[in-house]
From TrEMBL:
Keyword Glycosyltransferase: yes
Family: Belongs to the UDP-glycosyltransferase family.
Annotated ranges, domain Glycosyltransferase N-terminal: 11-251
Species the sequence originates in: Papaver nudicaule
InterPro entries noted in UniProt: Glyco_transf_N, UDP_glucos_trans, UDP_glycos_trans_CS
Domain of life, per lineage: Eukaryota
Gene Ontology MF terms: UDP-glucosyltransferase activity
Pfam families: Glyco_transf_N, UDPGT
Record-given protein name: Glycosyltransferase
Gene3D superfamilies in alphabetical order: Glycogen Phosphorylase B
Length: 493
């Protein structure tokens, strides 16, 4: 691959993710993607995260990819966070949030030192590092943004922010139409993030304001999606928002099998992986539902009990990833004798699961998800229909995309946006969970067959997009050519 560009000066990119699992995983894939095309990639990280990262990229370096890591100390103690706090995943209470963002802002100065020292040709930085646009501009370096989500959700967020269609609505559960979009999208006020509906200036609304401002001044946006998945929104985004964007996904097809997640839990993961796949091998095609709510969702013990009971009553085989937000001795959320009764029928995995491998397995026929974009795209790529259970961030928009635009999933009935640090109380009862699972996993019904057919077709398109001459491959090539040209122009001046 590298030879196409090798007669030029070798481009150098800084990749700077926010330290959150769901953002780091796709951004490391972006680094690998650039390196596979002969671009030198330097990942900017913090000391503890760099240790985990090093394990995942050592293999790539051995295979000849030019990837390195530079570390910036994270000033946790200076802002009043516990020592060793370097990741969003370690935040346990709302009062830690402002401190975390303050620490993130303090990374600007050391980042500028690295820019001055290395003078990369361009920077790809996470949306939550808005000051990188200004920092890079000081050295005449273009900055590209990575949002971690799709075009659709950005179009919805833009429309809600500009038009405020919920303005006159007094009942939080009354639905309204999101204006000015290619499709008829309906939402309720309770599903819209508080930083959009709230009258007061919250920390997050201030942060998002800075994100939008930096977006307007940036070189453009890299998107983990592919044109065929959301063509109307890719066009709408460029026209309505006036921001350049390149769709370069699905990034999970580009060398990522969850290795970043896995590296942190190396000891148990290979045994886990083997056992899970062996267990799945014993199941019929499309007979297992996979249940996972991502790395940040916090569910109360009561809600976990409802999930357990709903799964049991559905009669379906399942794999359920449970992330503990409590101490071991507090693990009373599973009904009495549940694990014994589910022996052979259900598999409970604590903390880490090889998600991409599970979704790709022929036995898996459904995915209950929190609607984080990485998870949805992995589900689509694997051709698995979904049960949507959004909780925070842009997850309610993603649910609309899955159920109202793509029509490849059913809602479980979650209807209230929560701040992600808060533990979600019981928002969905076992009856709804049981009904959603039974409905999705049923082999009968025209609607189900149509849904499976649609998601299978999207899976084929996803894989085609990243192949040579596929839409994501072509867009990525065009971006590299353009950066090569602008680098050539600036060096010749």
């Amino acid at each position: 691959m590298a030879s196409k560009f090798s007669h030029h000066h070798q481009l150098h990119v800084f990749i700077f993710p926010i330290t959150a699992q769901g953002h780091m995983i796709p951004m490391i894939s972006i680094a690998k993607l650039f390196a596979a095309r002969g671009v030198k990639a330097t990942i900017i990280s913090t000391p503890l995260n760099a240790i985990t990262l090093a394990k995942t990229i050592d293999q790539d370096r051995l295979s000849g990819l030019d990837i390195n890591i530079e570390t910036i100390p994270f000033p946790a103690v200076e802002v009043g966070l516990p020592e060793g706090t370097e990741s969003v995943n370690q935040i346990t209470s709302l009062d830690m949030m402002p401190k975390f963002f303050l620490a993130v802002d303090m990374l600007q100065q050391p980042f500028e030192k690295l820019l001055e020292e290395y003078r990369p040709d361009f920077v790809v930085a996470d949306m939550f590092l808005p000051w990188t646009t200004e920092a890079a501009a000081k050295f005449g370096i273009p900055r590209l943004i990575f949002h971690g989500t799709n075009m659709f959700s950005q179009c919805v967020a833009g429309s809600l922010r500009i038009h405020k269609p919920f303005g006159s609505i007094t009942n939080d559960k009354e639905s309204f139409l999101v204006p000015d979009l290619p499709d008829k999208i309906e939402m309720t006020k309770s599903q819209v993030p508080e930083y959009i509906t709230g009258g007061t200036e919250s920390l997050f609304s201030v942060v998002m304001g800075k994100v939008r401002e930096s977006e307007q001044k940036s070189y453009g946006v890299l998107v983990n999606s592919f044109y065929e998945l959301e063509p109307a929104y890719a066009d709408h985004y460029k026209n309505a928002m006036g921001i350049r964007a390149w769709q370069i996904g699905p990034l999970s097809l580009r060398s990522n099998d969850g290795t970043l997640d896995k590296a942190a839990k190396e000891k148990e993961s290979s045994i886990e992986e083997h056992n899970v796949l062996k267990w799945l091998d014993s199941k019929k095609p499309n007979s297992v539902i996979y249940v996972s709510f991502g790395s940040l969702s916090k569910l109360s013990n009561g809600q976990l009990t409802e999930i357990a009971t709903g799964l049991e009553e559905s009669g379906s085989s399942f794999i359920w990833v449970v992330r503990k937000s409590m101490t071991d001795e507090d693990e009373k959320y599973l009904p009495e004798g549940f694990e014994e009764r589910m022996e052979g029928k259900g598999l409970i995995i604590r903390e880490w699961a090889p998600q991409v491998l599970i979704l790709d397995h022929p036995a898996v026929g459904g995915f209950m998800t929190h609607c984080g974009w990485n998870s949805i795209l992995e589900g689509i790529t694997a051709g698995v229909p979904m049960i949507t259970w959004p909780m925070f961030a842009e997850q309610f928009y993603n649910e609309k995309f899955v159920t109202q635009v793509l029509k490849i999933g059913n809602q479980v009935g979650a209807d209230e946006w929560k701040d992600w640090v808060e533990t979600a109380e019981v928002s969905v009862k076992k009856e709804k969970i049981c009904k959603a699972v039974t409905q999705l996993m049923s082999e009968d019904g025209e609607e189900n067959k149509e849904m499976r057919k649609r998601v299978a077709e999207l899976s084929v398109k996803a894989k085609r997009a990243v192949n040579e001459d596929g839409s994501s491959y072509v867009q990525f090539s065009a971006l590299i050519e353009e950066l090569q040209m602008s680098s050539k122009t600036s060096t010749s001046q």
